[in-house]
Amino acid sequence: MNVMDWGPLWLTLQLAAVTVVVLLLVGTPLAWWLAFTRSRLRTLVEAIVALPIVLPPTVLGFYLLIALGPHGLIGGPWKDLTGSALSFTFTGLVIASTFYSLPFVVQPLHGAFEAVGKKPLEAAWSLGASKLDAFFTVASPMAIRGYLSAVVLGFAHTLGEFGVVLMVGGNIPGVTKVLSIAIYDHVEVLEYTQAHVLSAVLLIFSFLILTIVYTVNRRLPIHVS
Amino acid sequence: MNRLDARFRIDYPGFRFDVTCTVPLEGTIAVFGSSGSGKTTLLRCIAGLTRAPSGFLQFAQEVWQDDARGIFLPVERRHVGVVFQEARLFPHLTVTQNLKYGMKRSHPSRRRIAFDHVSELLDLEPLFQRRVPHLSGGEQQRVAIGRALLTSPQLLLMDEPLASLDQQRKKEIVPYLQRLNHELRIPVLYVSHDLHEILQLAHHMILLKEGRVAATGPIQEVFARLDLPELVESNVVGAILETRIAEHEPQFGLTRVEFLGHSLFLPQQALPTGAPLRVQILSRDVSLVAGVPPETSSMLNTLEATIVEVSESPSDQYAVEVKLDVGCPLLAMITRKSFQRLGLRPGQKVHANFKAVALS
Question: Which of A169, B40, B181, B352 could be a cystine partner for A165, CB 3.0 to 4.6 Å?
């Protein structure tokens, strides 16, 4: 029997953490725009953001594979800019995961910003706060529950992805071989012990995170109505 | 004196908001009108929260909006305090943090209103340790007023700040607003659909009707006008007098006040001697005596008056409105029959008997 290889677990946590950070940076302005715009493009953008929920991961993975390729929509310019390709790299995985988990971050934030509404912001502006100041000191703290949901869902969803990673990341140890794929590999070669350990780690970890989040959420002082 | 010059036009579906007005930046300027008349829109345009597509707004020497020249100063740079109908306190901050939110963001050189003064004026200290969601509606509104004042605004905009409160809470807050006027000398634009509030607080008035200015002027003038159905039908037409408490007669339950050298008696007031008191004499509470008044009358308040003008009563076809001069204008609504029997005409000297009501 082989010794336990913890590389995939570590890689998965890294991927999920980096993806969540990217998602917050991308998702916040997007959710803000969705919550407050009166543009007719809104429904269109909402539908696009929600696509990964309904599409089979392999379909999304297939398109991402093409887009991230050396001649793709994202991979092409990336190669011109950095000189290296995106497909089958960690960066490529982060980009793919960002698309894949986008709705799980944007939707809670969108809902939270809508619940906060314009009124407290108008109050903050009238008290001399700039638009950015009001966002950070009023809108964000009032939307804290939305942020909590977004971080947890984004993280957990990235943690569990399989189809997309397989399509765009391949299975390169230390680079793109994440937990779900490692478990799959172990099962393929009948290494049930390793599969058990990794699965149990993921199960317990996910359970712990969710418990902590629900506890914290319950104790948060903000009740936006 | 500094003025506020405003010119806004917004076309909404089925409603045109088209307001042009100039008001002195002094005391409380009431914006009155029925719901849907555009009161809140006017306040929001002045605050900079709503942008009229082609508007002009000048505050004293500062141009805040002039779309002809592409000028629009955002709300956070107008240095106005806004008190909304709902308090809009920040639920994630403590009462003290709410109060200091705007103060911290104001430039130290602009701060002329001290935290302790506002806290004392609005009686806020007992609330400091309380959490925002646990405050009553009246308490929240007091914190919201304090929060706006602590930015040391050059103009305070209040959008029906008492509308969400019951009568008891309203009574609690009105004295604070009166003190605010006397002590801080910040011009206040006060939106309300409650004439009683306006009578208690306002010095100047803008009456809006269907998105347009129906009347504007000093409150004494507007409330003496007979051509404004909003006021006539609410039975609030009459004289408004700024008096001072002269003496109390507790044995009779009366207070004597003075204005322009005249004395008036009112039911006893809980104010110290010398304190200002606004008094209203409704035109329907005034009766006239032609010729020599009887030496003994049960009426406490009698003033010698000269008839200025007689006109139809807009509210009662069997009555006439008599405009009198007692050093300031006074209105009397009397029956047509009395009018003919007394043979009243302009220039004639009469005695006016009346009941006066304290506005507090």
Answer: A169
- CA B238 from chain center: how many Å? 15
A225 inside 8 A of chain B by CB: no
Query: Structural domain of residue A166, as residue ranges?
Result: 7-219
A141 touches chain B (CB under 8 A): yes
Q: Do B90 and A123 touch (CB under 8 A)?
A: yes
Give how many domains chain A has, as a whole number.
1
Hunting for tokens 């345009």 — which residue is that? B45
Q: Is residue A30 part of a domain?
A: yes
Contact status of A219 with chain B (Cβ, < 8 Å): no
| Residue B177 token pair | 């607003």
Q: How far apart are alpha carbons B321 and B238 in whole angstroms?
A: 10
CB atoms within 10 A of CB B156: 24
Q: Is A171 exposed, middle or buried, given 0-12, 13-18 or 19+ CB atoms closer than 10 A?
A: middle
The alpha carbon torsion through A42, A47, A49, A53 (nearest 10 deg) reads: 160
User: Are B82 and A126 a contacting pair at CB < 8 A?
Assistant: yes
A194: CATH: 1.10.3720.10
Q: What residue ranges define each of the domains in chain B, with the CATH number in brackets?
A: 3-222 (3.40.50.300), 239-358 (2.40.50.100)
| B149 touching A (Cβ < 8 Å) | no
Locus of tokens 């936006």:
A224
> Between A and B, how many residue pairs show a Cβ–Cβ distance under 8 A?
65
Determine the Cα–Cα distance for residues A16 and A165; give it in Å rounded to an integer.
12
Specify the DSSP class assigned to residue B128.
T
The tens digit of pLDDT for each residue in A61-118 reads 888 888 888 788 887 888 888 877 777 788 888 888 999 899 999 999 999 999 999 9
Pairwise CB contact (< 8 Å): B88 & A221: no
The mean pLDDT of chain B is 89
For tokens 């507007």, what's the residue?
B222
Chain B: residue whose CA lies nearest to A119: B88
In degrees and rounded to multiples of 5, residue A15 shows phi and psi of -60, -45
pLDDT digits (tens, 9 = 90+) for B287-342: 888 877 666 677 788 888 999 988 888 778 888 889 898 888 899 999 999 888 88
The answer to whether residue A157 is domain-embedded is yes
Residues of chain A contacting B148 with CB distance shorter than 8 Å: 126-127
CA angle, residues B314, B319, B322, in degrees to nearest 5? 80
Q: How far apart are CA B174 and CA B172, in angstroms?
A: 6
Distance CA B146, CA B124 (A): 8
* Burial class of A167 by CB neighbour count within 10 A (0 to 12, 13 to 18, 19+): buried
Q: Tell me the pLDDT tens digit for each residue of B231-259.
A: 888 888 888 988 999 999 999 999 999 99
Question: What is the b/e burial string over B141-155, where b = at least 16 CB atoms within 10 angstroms of the residue's CB?
Answer: bbbbbbbbbbbbbbb
